[in-house]
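WARN retry 2 of 3 for item q-0093 after timeout on previous attempt; input resubmitted unchanged.
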Amino acid sequence: MKEVFVGIDFGGTRIKIGLVGDGEILEDLNMEAAAEQDFEYRLNEVGAEIHRLLARRDYRVTGMGFAFPGIVNFYQGTILSRYVKYPGAENTDLRAWANRHFGVPAVVENDARAALIGEWKHGAGVGSTDLVLVTLGTGVGTGALVNGAPLRGKNFLGGNLGGHMTINVDGAVCNCGNIGCVESEGSTWALKRIAEASPDFSASKLAGLDLIDFKALFELAEEGDPLAAKLRDRCLKVWSLCVINLIHAYDPAKVIVGGGIMKSSHIILPYIRQMIDKHAWITPADVALVAAVRPEHAGILGVYELLKQTNS
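OK item q-0093 returned
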């Protein structure tokens, strides 16, 4: 019987489930987030999917980990923030749930911090001691590794709120309540509002889409749609300023950029690199800028590493 760890990464669009054995992903699947549903109800559906995964082979679960898009008290395994998605998550004891349904210990961590640890141990950050991770997509998640340790801080905010730094004092109110955040200026959930506010919207192919996301935005920009190109370049600038702010805050040796939109890394990374070289208080040799190499599974591998650390 093969012993496995189960990792669950709650994203804004998808929930990723993976079985890990000896640091390798053995089985995985994605579920629609359906994040408007009550969290306890959705969690039970996740449990059913885990049982189906386990049934594929003769697996025995030895531990679980949850990567969640909110502020998390890692030491107590509790979710501290109410998130616009997954209602009721802050009232759920995930460690008790894992014990009740699977009889195993569990860890809970912020999703971006978990992804940072996954990339540090299994991806683009191997061998580094000072890292920043930025994930771009439905929202903007960030994490920081300082002197070989994940930054958490007194209130567990450390490194995680790069997406909620104000970069536009005249910007819209973000879903977090702050003004002109990186997320409200350059994330998937904000794209529709930003596009529709443009006087050029009705003449753009964006107006004919049921869903305005970054895949469509980059494709239409490449096709020469003027508004799509304008919004793409605006988002590139927003992300670049976010990265520069994180460099100034945490002084990393390497910045790792991940997320669902990194299929366009050939456009995104050179733009951010150019902005860093022009505007950051460092020389071009001082900080590396790289794409995440485990974008699908970094969060799962991160909570796997955290449970190993807890049990050691």
